[in-house]
C-alpha cells in the first residue's frame, strides 16, 4: 500500500501524462521501452558476469553517500527531461539515451536495485556480499523476462516508468534528509540561459519598477526580460541569477546546471501541467 508521499508523487506524474494525446503517449511508451531495454540489458549483464558485478559493487562501495545520491539524481533528471520535453514540445526528444556513461549507468542500476531490496527484503543484504549476485538475479528474473517480452503492454511499460521515477525521487529525498541536515543551497541559473535572455527597450509611457532596486526603468533603456515577462535592470538581475534560478517577483524557476535544482524545477513544472489539466477537465 502506498504512503501519502508516494501516492502524491505518483499522482503528479499520472496527471501530467493525462495531458498527452494517444499518439504522444505512444511516442512516450516507445521511448520508455527503449530505455528499459537498455537498463535491463545492463542489469542482466552485470548479474550474469561475476567479474563485472564485483567491479560495479566495488565502485559503489567506494562512493560516499553524496555521490550515490548524485548518480540517482542524474538518472532521474534524464527521465524527467524526456517527459517534460514531450509534454511541452509535443514530440519525443531527438535523443532519449541516458546521459550517464556506461560505468555510472551500471552503478546506478545496481544501486537502485539494492535500495529496493533494502526496503522490501532487507534480510537479503544481511548475507555475505559474495552471495548477493545470485540472490539479486533471482529477485529480478521475472521482471527482466516480462519487460523484455514482446507481449508486454504499453500500460505496463508506463506503470514501470512511473514507479521508477517515483522511487528515484523518494530515494533522493531520503538521502538528502539523512545527510548533514544543512539547509538546501540555492541553485544558480544556467549560464547558457542567462546569456540567451532577451534585452528589451522600455516603451514610451510604460512605468515599470525594477523589483530588485525599487527604481523606475527609464524610457528607452534596455532591460532584461525573464521568460515570465517580468523586467529588471541588467545590473540588478545578473548578480541575482548568479545565485538563484527564480524570478524575484513570481518565483518562476529558470533552468539550472545544478542537478538537484533542475529536478525540482522539472517536478514543479509537471505538477503545474497536471494541475492545469485537472482544472480544465473539471470545467
From TrEMBL:
Domain of life where this protein originates: Eukaryota
The keyword Zinc is annotated on this UniProt entry: yes
Record SMART domains: RING
Domain spans labelled RING-type: 210-251
Keywords recorded for this protein, A-Z: Metal-binding, Zinc, Zinc-finger
Entry keyword Transport: no
GO MF annotation, one: zinc ion binding
InterPro entries referenced in this protein's UniProt entry, alphabetically: E3_ubiquitin-ligase_domain, Znf_RING, Znf_RING/FYVE/PHD
CDD domains tied to this protein: RING-H2_PA-TM-RING
PANTHER family: E3 UBIQUITIN-PROTEIN LIGASE SGR9, AMYLOPLASTIC (PTHR22765:SF343), RING FINGER AND PROTEASE ASSOCIATED DOMAIN-CONTAINING (PTHR22765)
The protein's name in its UniProt record: RING-type domain-containing protein
Source organism: Cinchona calisaya
Amino acid at each position: 500500500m502506498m504512503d501519502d508521499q508516494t501516492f502524491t508523487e505518483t499522482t503528479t506524474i499520472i496527471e501530467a501524462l493525462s495531458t498527452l494525446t494517444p499518439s504522444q503517449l505512444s511516442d512516450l511508451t516507445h521511448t520508455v521501452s527503449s530505455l528499459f531495454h537498455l537498463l535491463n540489458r545492463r542489469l542482466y549483464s552485470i548479474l550474469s558476469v561475476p567479474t563485472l558485478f564485483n567491479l560495479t559493487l566495488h565502485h559503489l562501495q567506494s562512493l560516499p553517500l553524496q555521490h550515490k545520491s548524485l548518480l540517482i539524481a542524474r538518472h532521474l533528471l534524464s527521465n524527467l527531461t524526456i517527459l517534460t520535453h514531450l509534454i511541452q514540445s509535443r514530440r519525443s526528444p531527438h535523443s532519449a539515451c541516458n546521459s550517464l556513461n556506461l560505468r555510472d549507468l551500471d552503478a546506478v542500476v545496481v544501486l537502485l536495485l539494492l535500495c529496493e531490496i533494502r526496503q522490501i527484503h532487507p534480510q537479503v543484504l544481511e548475507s555475505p556480499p559474495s552471495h548477493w549476485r545470485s540472490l539479486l538475479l533471482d529477485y529480478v528474473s521475472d521482471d527482466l523476462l516480462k519487460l523484455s517480452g514482446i507481449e508486454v503492454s504499453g500500460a505496463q511499460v508506463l506503470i514501470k516508468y512511473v514507479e521508477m521515477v517515483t522511487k528515484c525521487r523518494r530515494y533522493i529525498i531520503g538521502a538528502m534528509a539523512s545527510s548533514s541536515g544543512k539547509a538546501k543551497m540555492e541553485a544558480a541559473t544556467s549560464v547558457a540561459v542567462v546569456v540567451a535572455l532577451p534585452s528589451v527597450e522600455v516603451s514610451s509611457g510604460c512605468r515599470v519598477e525594477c523589483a530588485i532596486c525599487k527604481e523606475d526603468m527609464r524610457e528607452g533603456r534596455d532591460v532584461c526580460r525573464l521568460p515570465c515577462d517580468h523586467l529588471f535592470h541588467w545590473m540588478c538581475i545578473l548578480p541575482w541569477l548568479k545565485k538563484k534560478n527564480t524570478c524575484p517577483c513570481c518565483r518562476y524557476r529558470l533552468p539550472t546546471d545544478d542537478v538537484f535544482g533542475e529536478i525540482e524545477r522539472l517536478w514543479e513544472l509537471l505538477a503545474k501541467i497536471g494541475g492545469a489539466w485537472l482544472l480544465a477537465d473539471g470545467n
